[in-house]
Amino acid sequence: MNAPHLDVEQVEAANTAFYEALEQGAFEDLSDLWLAPSDLGVDETYHDPADTGVVSCVHPGWPVLTGRGEVLRSYALIMANTDYIQFFLTDTHVSVTGDTAVVTCTENILSGGPAPEEGTELGPLVGQLVVATNVFRRTPAGWKIWSHHGSPVLAETDEEDEEETPS
């Protein structure tokens, strides 16, 4: 097996692990998947971690989050307020150049929040489409997420189609 093909497989595995950790609410596993200064050989005792290998994240409808702490806090908040989430990834494409990889995909998300009434197991399920770009960086410990950007896909409705159709 040639190295470029192996890189693509490893990035695909890291991307899958990211979504699985989020689905399972495994915050520690999710944290381990994000790039840290130590992954770049930087001694955080002498360098401000915010200046080194800055990670970033854009959740749909959120502002840009920068820095490992801010990004991980956002995932902790999402996990604390989401009782159920499942991702079905489609249109996945992986591109690797040197020590950087870019994954683009469509996240077909099914999620449910807290139950509206006591005794109910789960709140209503909601579906959403998000297009995502995940940027990974090769480290001695494997591929780590450097940046995630998710944008909602605006779905057409029947009303919009009717407005566009001339009478």
**Shape type:** globular
Helical content, roughly?
Answer: 25-40%
Give the DSSP E fraction (strand runs of 2 or more residues).
Answer: 25-35%
Mean pLDDT: 86
Largest sheet: 6 strands, mixed
Order of helices and strands: HHEEHEEEEH
* Strand line-up in the sheet with most strands: 2-1-6-5-4-3
> How many DSSP E strands?
6
What are the defining features of this structure?
alpha+beta, 6 strands, single chain, globular, 167 residues, 29% helix
What's a concise summary of this model?
This protein has 167 residues and is of the alpha+beta class. The chain is 29% helix and 35% strand. The protein has 4 helices and 6 strands; from the N terminus they run ααββαββββα.
